[in-house]
Amino acid sequence: MKLLKITPRLLWGILLSMIASLLNLYLPLLVRHFINLKQFAWSGLSKKVLLLGGLILIGNLLVSSLSDYLISSEGDRQVRQLRLRLQKQVLRLPQKYFDQQISGNLTSRIINDVNVLRSFLTETIPAVVTGCLTILGTMLITFSLDWKLTLLMLLVFPIDGLVTVPLGKISEVIADQTQSSLAALTGVTSESIKQIKTVKLNKTEEDVFAKNAREINKLYRLSLKGDRIAAMIGPLQSMLSFCLIMAVVLYGTLRVKSGSLSTGTLGAFMMYFFQIIGPINNVALFYSDRKQMLGATRKISEIINETAEETAGKEQLAVAPGSSLLRLDQVSFAYQDLPVLEKVYLEARSGEKIALVGATGAGKTTLANVITRLYPVAAGRISLNGQASTDFSLEQWRGFFSVVLQENTIISGSIRDNLTLGLNRKVTDQELWDALALVRLEEYAKKLPKGLDSLLGESGKQLSGGQRQRMQIARACLRDFKFLLLDEATSNLDADTEKIIMTALDRLKRTKNCGQITIAHRLATIANSDRIYFIKNKTVVASGSHEELLEKVPDYRRYVHEQQLKEKR
Ligand SMILES: Nc1ncnc2c1ncn2[C@@H]1O[C@H](COP(=O)(O)OP(=O)(O)O)[C@@H](O)[C@H]1O
Ligand SMILES: [Mg+2]
């Protein structure tokens, strides 16, 4: 049990609840005393017994309240710590991990499985500790009162065990399946909401509903199973306990009549009987509760034990100001077993614009991902000014690049939130407006009632595709960087707007003396690059200016020709 900790606060809570149990053990003895009194008068012994009883009840109340609070607040504290730890870990897991996960499932693990651990810490452990104490104490006291009646009462153990042990075994399985099923349901639900447009446009509401309904029904069947068991076992347990109580009462009454047992002792036995039923159940269920806890621990540990990206731990390396040279030498990369890049070379300098060109699926985005170290290379070397990329901390290395991804990276929040995402410096409103002007979004933003603070909706739902791309370019330009990396960043823009933005970026490149790496299809976007890297068959097959490549590389000529045909259409 490494995820949960037995802390002093928890121990104090358990100690107090043990004291409460001891007080509870004393009460029946007082009742026995009271019943056995020869006469009742508000004086002497009766008064003492009643006062003591009252004191014990009040003491019990105080001790129990304090104990409950200590234990639950400790549970809450540990849940919080575990959730924080999980969040931190999840944010540091490598991209590769997320490629294989359904985000909803992961979310459910982080939120729901932690609750299983909490209930083990705050319910099972205290209940079992105090339960054992109560059972042991009861046995000691009742044996000393009357061993024959105690033996009869002891029958409660096998009878209760008959019922709770199988119940525990089944509920253990059900609980484990319920957690998995809940994770799956969260997964499909969040995906169908995220992809609602795709669902609507492909008219696949019924299929998606059927898929979600399958998970809901699975969960329902699991609950029903649990309900059925509870419905059978609960009343059966009550009935058996009732029979046993009757047996104790009958036998006890006979003994009272024969004069070998006092009425008070019989009364005390009844109270002890009721007191130990709960603890016996709790102790009997310990094994299955523990199994549930271990299941949740295993799943959470899987996340915690995943190897995280090494984000910290390296000192900032000094990088000479001014011009930089980014270089890839013999770089190879594969997704699991699928080789995508083999022996790629590439150079990008400050003040230069280079382009990566190739058919879809050629590996351009992958190359960009490898450059920014979203994925580690399998072989080869990436370096900045001769210094290997892996000598830099991830944080410092990623700081060299400002990236506009092919996919939508607008977050829910305002224009300001989106533009300043990840910026660790203060920016003035004027800077933000300038960035919007650069991508020609100034007019649009000015018309919004809240200006820079207008909300854009989840993933920028309230923007058009082109506006979204321009917003991402504006965001990229506001950052400090050595290389601007644009992956199909202007593909949704009309040719004129694209030209204006590219010209603005050229100007930015010169004033900031940064490099620009562009991935694009449109010939006008790439033709004026200082160097074009033509990617085919997993590698860079040729590089040079547009004219050079046109002249020397037939494959490139063919690519350009096909592209021209597409653009004419
Ligand atoms: N996360 C991933 N896991 C596995 N394979 C991937 C992943 N991303 C891309 N690929 C595969 O890698 C190849 C190159 O993809 P990509 O770099 O996106 O191409 P491009 O950007 O040139 O269109 C494709 O065959 C694609 O299926
Ligand atoms: Mg791509």
Automatic annotation (TrEMBL):
Gene Ontology CC terms, in alphabetical order: plasma membrane
Annotated membrane topology: Multi-pass membrane protein
Domain ABC transporter: 326-562
Subcellular location: Cell membrane
Major subcellular location class: membrane
Organism: Lactobacillus delbrueckii subsp. bulgaricus (strain ATCC 11842 / DSM 20081 / BCRC 10696 / JCM 1002 / NBRC 13953 / NCIMB 11778 / NCTC 12712 / WDCM 00102 / Lb 14)
Residue ranges occupied by any ABC transmembrane type-1 domain in the UniProt entry: 11-292
Chain ranges passing through the membrane: 12-29, 49-71, 125-143, 149-168, 229-254, 266-288
Record CDD domains: ABC_6TM_LmrA_like
Short name of any one Pfam family annotated for the protein: ABC_tran
InterPro entries noted in UniProt: AAA+_ATPase, ABC1_TM_dom, ABC1_TM_sf, ABC_transporter-like_ATP-bd, P-loop_NTPase, Type_1_exporter
An example molecular function term from Gene Ontology annotations: ATP binding
Entries under Gene3D superfamilies matching the protein: ABC transporter type 1, transmembrane domain, P-loop containing nucleotide triphosphate hydrolases
Sorted UniProt keywords: ATP-binding, Cell membrane, Membrane, Nucleotide-binding, Transmembrane, Transmembrane helix, Transport
Protein name, per record: ABC transporter, ATP-binding/permease protein
